[in-house]
Hints:
By secondary structure, this protein is an all-alpha fold. The chain has one domain (8-76). The protein is 34% helix and 0% strand. It is globular and about 40 Å long. The protein starts with 7 loop residues before the first helix and ends with a helix. Bound molecules: flavin-adenine dinucleotide (FAD). Residues 1-2, 7, 44-45, 55-58, 60 line the site of flavin-adenine dinucleotide.
Amino acid sequence: MTGYQPNLAFLRDLGIELSMDEVSKPTYNEENYETNVKGIYLAGVICGGMNTHRLFIENSREHAEKILIDISRKIKH
Length: 77
Ligand SMILES: Cc1cc2nc3c(=O)[nH]c(=O)nc-3n(C[C@H](O)[C@H](O)[C@H](O)COP(=O)(O)OP(=O)(O)OC[C@H]3O[C@@H](n4cnc5c(N)ncnc54)[C@H](O)[C@@H]3O)c2cc1C
């Protein structure tokens, strides 16, 4: 969807902090993609906030794997 803008208000409503600049980058741990709200993870283009042109299939496909590794590690402990 060319021109797509992410629904950042939805993230804000969930309590996810966004950067104060025009990018509105969500706050998440770069290692496991968990946001500042425990148990809520972000994957894909939304991780870039308004910078939707920075993340593509090639460089965001590993997000899900990292999230699942983190969740399974937490379930085991
Ligand atoms: C024109 C164009 C060409 C591209 N070409 C390439 C390319 O050649 N190679 C490449 O690697 N990448 C390309 N990309 C980028 C690629 O499409 C994206 O990186 C990828 O689709 C992002 O996947 P995603 O799952 O993060 O987001 P999306 O694919 O946008 O998926 C998000 C999904 O969430 C749904 N959704 C949103 N809000 C809600 C809600 N409240 N409840 C339920 N569902 C909701 C949406 O309907 C959507 O289906 C291109 C993008 C565009 C626009």
